[in-house]
Specification:
Distance between the termini: 86 Å
Strand content: 5-15%
CATH superfamily of the largest domain: Periplasmic binding protein-like II
CATH architecture of the largest domain: 3-Layer(aba) Sandwich
CATH class of the largest domain: Alpha Beta
């Protein structure tokens, strides 16, 4: 009887605490929603499921305006041009670092991000945000090669294998200047973060030979050209590769031998945000395992939320593009300052000369 009485008392205390915490969270949501402000999200295209947006709005009453971009540089140019109405942005790791250095990001209130504990430690406190002060990981991924094995019979294991004259007009690649230059640097055995004038001079003739071979530049949906049969080879985001594999196993995704980019796309609050409280509510919302799973269901990148991974099916976890096997050579991009402009100019000039 005494043991049961103690247990009953403990459960009563826990219940009171739970109700109290739930009430505080609900009051916080109601307080934010009562301001009548919408949440302005500026993020990558084909990356935020409508179900996630609708679920957040249904729970909090906060409307989400979702505007998209196709590259980090496009997002940065809008911010530089004076766009100040965004409450939440979705930069990749090197852009997080650059924006933080420039004082363009608002430090996060970690007390409002209780679900950050669901993110794997291997994706936190990295070089771009060593104190995890400004960013919350959204999705992680790689940039790899997709081969239509019904059309291409020769083994493709590297960038060099892909960019051959016999594949001219059969290739789609990401329309991303830094990515393209990084592939060239990797083929030369140079770290993609070592962007110097000397290295740019070395890589320019390499990628200039590639450009005439490329049929399509597309960062939004490179999978479309492969599904339509317009091309047989591609360098794509792994989420696109995963969708191709889901569609037909003839589309094989592989990571190039030279090494490739491990990107970490995160949510950040720009300094000019008018509704940072709603932004943090959205951040903590998408960190819930069941919500993060919805993102994986629609956009099968590598989910850094380890609790969400437990909810994925064996088929999802065995997709070679979403969760590559082995020990591939991967690395994140770091901020390279004004060299980013030099890269963009070089690639633009090479495109226009074709």
């Amino acid at each position: 009887m005494k043991e049961n009485s103690v247990k009953s008392m403990v459960w009563s205390v826990l219940l009171v605490l739970l109700v109290s915490l739930t009430g505080c969270n609900k009051k916080n949501q109601e307080s934010v929603a009562s301001t009548g402000k919408a949440l302005n999200l500026f993020a990558w295209s084909e990356y935020v499921p409508q179900k996630v947006i609708d679920g957040f709005t249904a729970e909090t009453g906060i409307k989400v305006n979702y505007e998209t971009y196709a590259s980090n540089e496009e997002m940065l140019s809008k911010l530089i041009a004076g766009a100040s109405h965004y409450d939440l942005i979705q930069p990749s790791e090197y852009m997080v670092e650059a924006l933080a250095k420039a004082g363009k990001l608002k430090p996060l209130d970690r007390e409002k991000l209780s679900n950050l504990q669901n993110i794997g430690k291997e994706y936190l406190n990295l070089g771009h945000d060593p104190e995890q002060k400004y960013s919350v990981p959204w999705m992680v991924g790689t940039v790899g090669i997709v081969v239509n094995t019904e059309k291409v019979k020769e083994p493709i294991v590297s960038f060099k294998d892909l960019f051959q004259e016999k594949y001219k007009g059969r290739i789609v690649v990401l329309n991303d200047s830094r990515e393209i230059v990084s592939w060239g640097l990797s083929t030369l055995g140079i770290n993609p973060n070592e962007v110097t004038d000397e290295n740019l001079a070395l890589v320019k003739p390499v990628i200039s030979k590639w450009f005439p071979l490329i049929k399509i530049f597309d960062s939004d949906s490179p999978k479309t050209a492969m599904l339509n049969g317009d091309v047989d080879l591609g360098i794509v985001w792994n989420g696109e590769g995963a969708k191709l594999y889901q569609e037909n196993k003839k589309f094989q995704y592989l990571l190039p031998q030279e090494g490739t980019h491990l990107f970490i796309d995160s949510l950040c609050i720009p300094m000019g945000s008018k509704n940072p409280e709603a932004a943090e509510l959205f951040m903590n919302y998408i960190l819930r395992p069941e919500v993060s799973k919805l993102i994986s269901d629609e956009f099968p990148y590598t989910n850094p939320n380890l609790e969400a991974r437990k909810l994925l099916s064996p088929e999802q976890l065995n997709n070679p593009a979403s969760y590559p096997k082995g020990n591939p050579k991967l690395g994140i991009f770091l901020d390279i300052g004004k060299k980013l402009e030099a890269i963009d100019q070089m690639v633009t000039d090479l495109k226009s000369s074709q």
